[in-house]
Structures are given as C-alpha cells and as structure tokens.
Amino acid sequence: MIRRPSFLAVPFLLALALAGCANPGPDARLAESAIVDGTRGGDPAVVWIYSRDSGGLCTGTLIEPRVVLTAKHCVQEPGADGPSSASAIIAGIGDRAGSGTTLRVQSVYTTPGSYRDDGRLSGLVGQDVAVLVLVSGVTDVEPIPVRRTPPDDLRGQTVTAIGFGQIPSGSSGTKYTATGSVTYVADDVIYVGSLICQGDSGGPMVTESREVAAVVSFGNGSCGSGQGGYNAIYNFLDLIDMAIEEGGGCVNDGAEVCDARDNDCNGAVDEGCTPIGGSCASDDICVGNHCRDTIAGRICTEPCDARRPELGCGEGFYCAREGAVSCGGFCVPRTGDASLANDRPCERDDECASFFCTDPGDGVRRCLTPCEGDSGMCLAGEACVAGPGSCGACVDADLVSGLRAGLGEPCGDAADCASGSCIDDGDARYCSRACDGEIGCPSGYHCRDAMCVRGTLGGIGETCVNNADCGSGTFCAVQGDRGWCTSLCGSAEQCPDGFACVAAGGVMVCAPEVGLVGDACATGTDCFSGVCGDAGVCTRECGVDAPCGPGFECRRGADGTSAACVAPRAETSGGGCAVGVGARPGVTPVLVLIALGTIVFARRRRRG
Question: What InterPro entries does the database record attribute to this sequence (predicted)?
Fold first, then answer.
C-alpha cells in the first residue's frame, strides 16, 4: 500500500515481481527513492517533481526548454484512467526540492491505461513513462536530449543516475548523482545494480553521450542492495515527440514528408505537399496525410465533425458527411454561397446556411440542420431523425413517427422517450435523462433535481428556477415568478452593466435595472440582452451553442435561419424576492426574503 507522505517525505511503494527476471520477493518496490553512494548535486537539467494528489516526490529531466520527462506513476494515481491535472503537479529547478525556480505545468501526458497496486504493478511495468509540458520555457539550463535508438546495446555500459530520493542514511529531497553499469535489458525494462533507493522515480538514465535512455521505475531489495528497473523510452518516442511539438520544439532534422510535422525543422510544416482541396492519389503527398474520395472528388483533406459542418475546416471549406448516418466527415471546398434557409429546396450542402442538404426520409431534399440522435442538438419543437450514436437532420417533430424521441424533444408521456423520462420544465414538456451533478448531460444541458434540463449553467442575468441552474460563484434570486442568476457584491462595480448592487435580507446582491429575457420592452436599451423582440418582449438569439435559460425555449424563426428565446408560459406578478445564497445541488438553500426597490422590477413580463 502506498504511504501518503508530506512534502519532501519519500513514500515507499508496492511489492512487485520483476518482468523478465526471477521473482525478487516482497522487497521489490517502485523506486521513489535516492541515489546510492552518490555525489551531492548534478546536472541542472534534472528537476524535482511533486504531486499534490499523492504527496510524493519524484525526479524528472528537462529534455526541451518546455518539456520534462518522468515516470507515469509520479503523475498518475493507481486505478486512475489518466494522469492528474496539470495544476496538481509542481516541478522545480535546483539541488534541493522546494528551493530554486518553480516550474508551472501546462499539460500532462502518460502512456495509455490505468495500473494497479496489486503487488505486481499490473499495467505499469514497461509502460512507466510520462511527459510534462511547461507553461513557459527554461532559458538558463541546457536540456538533456532523449536517446532515439533501441536500448539493446546498453548492456555493460556505464550510465549516470541522478535523483532527489532517499539516501541510505535516510534523508531525501537533495539531488545526488552516481554512476553504474547496465546489467540486463529486457524489452522495455533496463536493469542496473544497486544504484537507486526509495525516491528517484522518473529520474534519468543518462548515457555517456549525455542522452536520456530511460526513467527510473522500480527497485527491489533494501536501499543500497538489489537491482533497479528503468523504463526504456525508445518505444514511447511518439508520446514524447507530441509533447515536444506542443512545447514549440522540433523533433526531426531530416527530409520533409507530408505528415503534419516540421520534419526538417525549418519552421514550415509540409512545404511542397499538396494542400487541402488539391487532387491526390495517395496520403503521402497531402498536407496532413489524408487523401480521400469525397463529394468533391479524390482530394487532400482532413477529418472533421459533420455535426457542425461550419466549424473545423479552413476558410473556403466545410465539413461534408462521410456517410448517410455518419457523424464524421472530411473537409471539402465550398462552391455555393451558403445562403438558403432551412426547409428551402437544395441540391448541394454548400447552398445551405446550415451546410447540410438532405432528404430526411419524406422524399423532399432540402436544407436542414445536422444532428446526432438523442444528443439534444435540435431546437424546441424539432426532432432529430436518427438513432442514438448516428446522425441525421432536425425536422419538425410533428413529421416524425415510429422513432422514440431523444433528449430535449417533445413528448406526451414517458413512453414517447427513448430514455423513458418525459419531464415538465415550466410549461415545456420534453424528454430527459437521469444525471448526477455534472455527469450525464451533454453540451447545452445541465443537471437539476437529478434530471438533464435545457440550458447551460447561467451567469449573472440568466434566468433560473433554483441554484442548480447557476454557474460557479452565483446563485438564483427569485422575485415572484421571476428568477435570475446573481452573486454577492460590495459595490455596483462588481455587477455587470444594467445591474445594481442592492441590499437583500442582510446581504448585497446584483439585481437588474433593465429587463431580462421575457420582460416587457419598447426598445433594445430596455433589455439586458440589448434585443427587444417584435412582440415587445426582451429576448436574445439562441442556438446549440447558446441555449436559453430555464423557463424559455429556443425556437427557430420564420426565416428558417435565426432563432430566439421565447417564454412558453405567461408570467404573473409576485411579491417579495427569495434569494438562495451560495447553495449548490445537494445543499439546502438559504432563502432570504427581501424587498427590492420598485424601479428595479418595474417591468413585468408579457405573454410570449
């Protein structure tokens, strides 16, 4: 069992059987330990790493100005599907952990999969490699480059070990350096003699040519005896190179090939290759390495998301669906003017503002909005003609029969819904599904009372029913039948334009001085959104990326292209204002009755 130490204490880890060797017995353990018989100090490119999640100290190597190489178990907990967040990892330069220059981590990458603390470190031996991309580069330290050849020739060679772990006397957190010989190479594990002790995990095996060939993974025996296991990095160069490229480095110095990388390190990618949209015969001549048969012919292209054909491709291109019900696609050139509204007859995708021309099954080919089944991507009153996991088009829900309704689509009762859940959300009734906090609802929905409801978590000024509808740092204030997300304030400067900081039951909150969505208006200046609809009611534009708040629906306009938030029910006036202060789902709201000035709430809602 892993002991969770305080900062700079070095935890012992699990017993394990060495891969490729006889079982060394219960003394084998992850090498979160220090260099044996070493000299204090060492290469400045060797850094210390601390994980807030495990409380463990490790070692890493600066292999590029913004990239640190270390061990997977230093940055990923046993049983976890992936690494800890970047904010949970701290690295630093210096000969003593906790001193010197601290390095902020931007990204953490590990070999795929989880591992277990089952005594054999299942899923970890031979896979114990991780890389960190730093927020900014280190300019005053020369990185140690990685070795890019197989490790088989290292047997018998002298290598250098550097780490911050425990020394035989028991202290830890100080950098030590020692040399030793490689005794055995087995697949992705390189064994050395009694060179490491508890605490050096992730530290480098540095060759005589000053290259990192492996990282410390585990050790067996007590400190100063037994063997140490290093994880070779040769088979994980793709992972390392990905991090190097993210950090602004170049990983090659050869001839340029068409693989979306700067192979010749001249600052240009795939120069001389056929650009996206050009004719091709094979992948290897295309920028990005994708030559495909598309509706525009066989061209160089790149994968994209056909659910959002207007996004993800460069200017002058759109995403064309790969197959009739596929959600994936490839970028193709635009030739039309993309001007036709939904439900207008069409021949090609790029004639439509939605970039999707299809016959949804009723024999009429027309412009429609693409969607994925049961993903809540269609507007109010519409349904997606596709099953879960496949893609189709949004059509008037009244046209669809024989298909159980998906998330967000109209329903009469539970039997109408694929999920078996039909809910009333104000005057709106639609299919929903169960959720648990932030888990279970797709984009454009959030969890309230254990069910997915329309809308994202609102900021100040968005409508709400209770605190579960409001984002972090905000809560739901209610006056009669009018609710809005708000926050505590100390002055008007802490509230958005159009809001005042007012007293409310012993606290100060941001309250609207202009109309919210659904309030009566004469001009756009009367509305927080700046939009006064034709019916004299404040509204705002909406869509899949900007869903309406609770109590309102996003309905497509008569022009077939635009959409706006409309209230599904008539509101009645109310009395005081109830404010739930700071409560989140699962926490009983604190309700404070307040009476706000009549100027703030003079405008009442009309029927929408």
Answer: Peptidase_S1, Peptidase_S1_PA, Peptidase_S1_PA_chymotrypsin, Peptidase_S1A, Trypsin_dom
Question: Phi and psi of 292, rounded to 5°?
Answer: -140, 155
Count the residues in the chain: 608
CA pair distance 489, 480, nearest whole angstrom = 22
289: left (phi over 0), alpha (psi -120 to 50) or beta: left
CA 148 to each of CA 215, 232, 598: distance values in angstroms, whole numbers, following the listed order: 14, 11, 73
CA pair distance 402, 396, nearest whole angstrom: 14
CA distance 11 to 471: 39
Q: What is the mean pLDDT of residues 270-285?
A: 93
The pLDDT of residue 440 is 83
pLDDT band at 53 (very low <50, low <70, confident <90, very high): confident
Q: What is the mean pLDDT of residues 59-79?
A: 95
- Cα–Cα distance, 163 to 107 (Å, whole number): 23
Amino acid 75: pLDDT: 95
Phi and psi for 235 in degrees, rounded to 5?
-80, 0
Q: Is the dihedral of CA 141, 146, 147, 151 positive or negative?
A: positive
Task: Map residue 157 onto helix, strand or coil.
Answer: coil
Query: Could you tell me if 160 and 154 are in contact, meaning their C-beta atoms sit under 8 angstroms apart?
Result: no
Q: Are 196 and 204 in contact (CB under 8 A)?
A: no
Q: Phi then psi for 244, rounded to 5 degrees?
A: -60, -45
d(CA 219, CA 405): 57
Max intra-chain CA distance, the chain: 86
pLDDT the model gives residue 14: 25
Contact between 4 and 13 (Cβ < 8 Å):
no
Nearest to 109 by CA among 69, 61, 144: 69
Going from the C-alpha of 104 to that of each of 83, 136, 152, 456, 524, the distances in angstroms are: 16, 8, 35, 31, 45
**CA 44 – CA 101 distance, rounded (Å):** 11
Query: Among candidates 125, 127, 126, 162, which has minimal Cα distance to 144?
Result: 162
Q: 451 exposed, middle or buried (CB, 10 Å; 0-12, 13-18, 19+)?
A: middle
Whose structure tokens read 């009309």?
Answer: 606
Tell me, what amino acid is at 582?
Answer: G
Give CA–CA dist 446/453, Å, rounded: 6
Measuring CA to CA, how many Å separate 177 from each of 195, 200, 204, 206, 606? 10, 11, 10, 11, 77
Which DSSP string do the residues of 283-324 spell out, in sequence order? GGGBTTS-EEEETTEEEE--EEETTSTTSSS-TTEEEEESST
What residues are paired with 507 via a beta bridge?
Answer: 504
Q: How many Cα atoms are found within 13 Å in the side-chain-facing hemisphere of 548?
A: 27
SS3 of residue 428 by DSSP = strand
* Opening angle at CA 306, ends 458 and 451, nearest 5: 35
Q: What is the pTM of this model?
A: 0.59
CA-nearest of 423, 427, 426 to 435 is: 423
Contact between 75 and 133 (Cβ < 8 Å): no
> Which tokens in the block code for residue 356?
């999707």
Least confident of 93-102, 117-126, 192-201, 483-492: 192-201
